[in-house]
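Late entry, evening session. Most of the bench is empty. Finally got around to the prediction I had been postponing all week. Sequence below, unchanged from the version circulated by S.P.
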Amino acid sequence: MINAGGTYTILGGSRMPPEVVEAWVEASKSFVDMEALHRKAGEIIAEVTGAEAGLVTSGASGALLLQAAACIAGKDREKMKKLPHSEGMPNEIIFPGWPGGYANCYMAGGARIVNVGKSQVDFAEEEIEAAITEKTVALGYIFFTPIGEEPLKRLIAVGKKHNLPVIVDAAAELPPVENLRRLIAWGADLVAFSGGKDIMGPNDTGILCGRKDLVESAFMQACPHNLVGRALKVSKEDIIACITALRRYVSLDQKERRRRWEEVVKYWMREWADIPHVKVEIIYEGCTEEGKYVAQGWPKARVIVDEKALGVTVNQIGQTLWEDTPSIYVITKGSRRGVIPGSFTINPQLLNDEEVKIVVRRVKEVLLSRKG
């Protein structure tokens, strides 16, 4: 298939660059002390993120489970042995808004979720403070750039006031690459990123970074150790590939990446400009000025269709492209960023030059086949 949607887990995440694949293959040829490998990888993560410590995890979701386990058990081995059964011990994590389906990751680590406020951006510090009890072990936050920046800083201030760690799910919040360091710099105690999205490591890797004591607790409870995170195994190949991808990622020219995406979208706009009842525009999804945009806010093409004139809906267009050979995935759902009624969006992020041309041809054929 051709992925013109994004780095969705359900579509396989991202593509590993050749040097990352090479590192994965090379690692497969050797044996290694996994404890030592994890710790060396953690040192590199700490260096890249500015955190005290780091850990390669089984996806960002694995990092969320370990966040919860670390905050509940700390360095107490008796508590660790009981998790995820946390009855009788402090186990509550307070979230502004509900953390959606990812609440299950925290609960699998033993946490009980306490929800306050209307959403992750619409809450008052007083609401958070009123929910804090002797059972509270952490404040949690699902972070989105840029709308979550000011609310997260407010939550961190509450955490510091009450000596509670603030744990953050920032799985898909790259780019901007600055997020790798600034969430920790703001004072977050544990931050989770996906290793298989824009970092372009294996889809089943994640990065946990933050306070040394909490990361150490997370590692004590993760594979190769026999505690609540045992099932979250990360292979030697994944660790090496994830770290290789991370080092590569921070060395990339982000402005050049954005320039190429813009060129691709403008190429599409020229190629589809004369299709009847169709308008194509470039969108940046929340960008307000240079360097200020939502995570994943790279240039995309928004294709606006006069559904009545063409006699077809954008969902039908998306389904036709999906049933093609190769399948082409575009974003037609209103729940996705950048989609408005009567439109679908096409993301150039993951496409190679050949795929860019295939998308041009097939979208044009599908739209022109509708006579209206």
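Two things to note before I forget:
Residues 9-251 form a domain with the Aspartate Aminotransferase; domain 2 fold (CATH 3.40.640.10).
The radius of gyration is 22 Å.
Will write this up properly tomorrow.
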